[in-house]
Amino acid sequence: MNIPSSTLVEVQNIQMDFHYHTALKDVSLAVKRGEIVTLIGPNGAGKSTLVKVILGLLTPQKGQVFRQAGIKIGYMPQRLSVDMALPLTVERFLRLSGITQLATIQAVLAEVGASAVLQRPLQHVSGGELQRVLLARALLRYPDLLVLDEPIQGVDVGGQYELYDLISRIRTQRGCGVLMVSHDLHIVMAATDHVVCLNQHICCSGHPGIVSRHPAYLSLFGARPARDLAFYTHHHHCAEHTVNEENIPITEESVLPANEQSIHPLHSAVVITKD
Ligand SMILES: Nc1ncnc2c1ncn2[C@@H]1O[C@H](COP(=O)(O)OP(=O)(O)OP(=O)(O)O)[C@@H](O)[C@H]1O
Fold it and tell me: What pTM value is reported for the model?
């Protein structure tokens, strides 16, 4: 099957079984150029499994995987598969990707805001710096599609906003598509175009403002994250993020009880801009 030229990858009706356990059942999704798609779901929902199917690292028992011919994919895995006991500088670690030009490595580290760690041993960089180095590695081949499996692990809350802001800017500047896995709902949902809520099957999917109010989402995650998102988007985002399913604007007053409106923790949050 041919996929539209704007689509980078598409999977249809995927089933992935491990022994007697079905990790994915009848899962379909697509990522287009310039779009950020975020997979959310509880532990064991099949998020990493779906990412591996999309990357071609796992072959599903059923369904089809389409990749646009000739596209390059940059992958940031959930775990770093490097022996942290090895004496390895960030520069040498990035050279392991096959890119040997120092100027290219310096440019990509500057792009992710991690120039300062170039000569530092990998095991001495902080959690937030390590995530930026891993993002730099995924960017080194100038991918059409960036696949990020829980990119904000080990990053403090302020750093999480910065990292999502960075990912959003990379998408805009490079025009690549982004497929992300995340647990942190209220932050990531404000920085994404399309959310897919997974729990073996797709429970719901669509625009973040709609998914956050979907009964399947609420039964998985509870009401609080939805209220956080509505509050957050009300303050920091364009109109398209502040309407509900009936296209009625969502206001701070409509989602938070009066006694929570002035003390909400996201009130002073760092702004993520959505282009
Ligand atoms: N190689 C494997 N062999 C057997 N079972 C596996 C394998 N990989 C994943 N699983 C199982 O498939 C299910 C989905 O795992 P997966 O890692 O995709 O979930 P996840 O949504 O990414 O979870 P988390 O949020 O905890 O990272 C889990 O029950 C897991 O134990």
Answer: 0.80
